[in-house]
Amino acid sequence: MSALARTSAIDVVAARAWPSSRERPSRRRERGWVRAAQEGSDEAMEALFRVHWGRAHRAAYLIVHDAAAAEDIAQEAFLAAIRALDRFDRRRPFGPWLHRIVVNRAIDWSRARALRREVWEPVESEAPEERPDGWSDEVVAALAVLDPDQRAAVVLRHLLEYTPGEIAGLLEIPRGTVNSRLRRALDRLAVELEPDRAGEPLDREAQP
Amino acid sequence: MRRKAFQRRLREELHEARPPHAAEAERRAWAVVRAAHAERGAVRRPMRGRRLAVAAVTAALAAVLALSPAGAKVGDWIGDVVDPAPDATPSTLGSLPSDGRLLVVSPAGPWIVHDDGARRRLGDFRDATWSPGGLFVAAARGRELVALEPDGDEVWARPAPGQVSAPRWSPDGFRIAYRSGRDLWIAVGDNSGAERLARGIGPAPPAWRPNAPTPGQVVAFSSRRRIRIVEEDTPRLIGATPPGPVPRELWWTADGRRLVAVSSGEIRVHDGRGRLLRREPLPPGVRATGSALDTAGRRLAVAAEETGRRASEVLVFRLARRRLDPTVPPDRLYAGPGSIEGLTWSIDGRVLVLGLPEADQWLLVRPRAREPLREVSGIRRKFAGGKGTAARATAPFPRPAGWCYAEPPEPSGAGVPPCTTGAAPAGGLVP
């Protein structure tokens, strides 16, 4: 076992306890995992998976509102990452690269589903069948009224914590479009989540 | 104040969110991912060191080439080294001299050439173009517009009333403009609809404006002797150019502020509403047969045929901030016998590919070095895909149609430029 693989094996123990945490590994540590994964280390791959799976899966779910689809999308994103691993530039962080794939696929899936429903199915509730403890029913229901682009903007901004400029880069759209999607989404969410304050505008803030 | 409190609450709720049965999903996903990673390790080519060595040698030779007046000869030799004769390794093209993937349109259908030279035929389609981020390809199949994944998987197909040609994807990725017969149609990127935008448009493929200041996407197309600029969602006419020669190609600069129209005898630069800013006649005795604008929107390469002789040249015009720079004459990048079919910039703007049908070659040129970097021979055979007719000298020449990133593009704060689009067929589009 190489020194790098040993490091990864140690790291992976910590990474297994990571999924629900908001903490992220240092850039240096993540670069080490990517390098080791490129060289074939299963431990390093697992470390990357454990750290990034939770956010990727959650982001997909919040956009598509379908547990099976979210699992498929997040899984497919990891498989795409593995296929492109040899070409990955280690100077770049792994997370944004993965999140771009997840979010774009989730948007595509949501649009395709909206179309299928419009053509073939009666509109059905988008609420999940089961909601474990800790999950906010209200926020899920409120997100469901947004269109997929707005949901993606909210998830990227408020779950994955990208700036509007970074979101513009991830989605390949102008920053002004990101800001307007976020503004409209938050206004709509405010109406849904705080109906007693409907009509009272949220004050504006400068978007970085 | 209220917004900040609301956002804080929203953030906390989102961070607490867990999809149903998350633990089981994670366990299943890891099993799949681990298997895929193990399989990758098993099939990974043990060629990395060799490829790096070849790349290093190629880079060193390219440097020599840039400095040496005998560049063309050295270029031939590099071609021999990096691009073995088709008989020896018919399945490889040789590595591309720039990162990313090259889209090629041949009589056998579109192909994608990867930077390591591996190539894949997408199927029986006639015309093709990249989506802005290179995640998809839009292609024409008779009276159908088809969206494909770069590995050839068909995402959707949409029937059209006429023969489909010249698909062009909008910068936001949500629309595809295409010709159906002689009409201009716009399809939604997820295939949820399509509408005819204009009847009887000219031969130039439609051109989407990047960074449109309007809520909807803006497309320019030629109509008789004018170019019309339309916001397609509404649809609303934003502007029209004064009457002029019929353009064969239209390009927007990267900032979306200038529209460049290339007709057979001149180049015209218009502003975003169609007002004419400058005319630049081509040198006497030549007519433009194709053009390509680099991703930065600063260099316009024009393929021109010398009338009365069977010879062609490639001129590179520099586009200054407001206009074609009148103080800088165009660079004559290449001149030689025969015609030129296909002209495409690499995604980083360092390499220009031009097709030479009579020589059955592509020439890969570094404009800054002003020397050919590589010649790739036997192009018809390489892109025949087992179809004998496609390999014949009378068949249309396989043309480079656009360059894109290696998948997927990596994000940056400043965003990423879109994939490039190559010149339209020199013989014009089939109505």
What is the fold's blueprint, element by element?
The complex is a heterodimer of chains A (208) and B (431).
Chain A (H helix, E strand, L loop, with lengths): L2 H14 L10 H12 L3 H23 L2 H17 L10 H27 L16 H8 L3 H12 L4 H8 L3 H19 L15
Chain B lengths: L1 H15 L5 H22 L4 H20 L3 H12 L18 E6 L2 E5 L5 E3 L5 E4 L6 E5 L2 E5 L5 E6 L4 E6 L5 E6 L2 E6 L5 E5 L8 E2 L9 E6 L2 E6 L4 E5 L8 E4 L5 E5 L3 E6 L4 E6 L4 E8 L5 E8 L4 E8 L12 E7 L5 E3 L6 E5 L4 E6 L4 E7 L1 H4 L5 H4 L7 E6 L27
Antiparallel strand pairs in B: 1-2, 1-28, 2-3, 4-5, 5-6, 6-7, 8-9, 9-10, 10-11, 12-13, 13-14, 14-15, 16-17, 17-18, 18-19, 20-21, 21-22, 22-23, 24-25, 25-26, 26-27
The gist of it:
The complex is a heterodimer of chains A (about 210) and B (about 425). Chain A has about 210 residues and is mainly α. Chain A is built from nine helices and no strands.
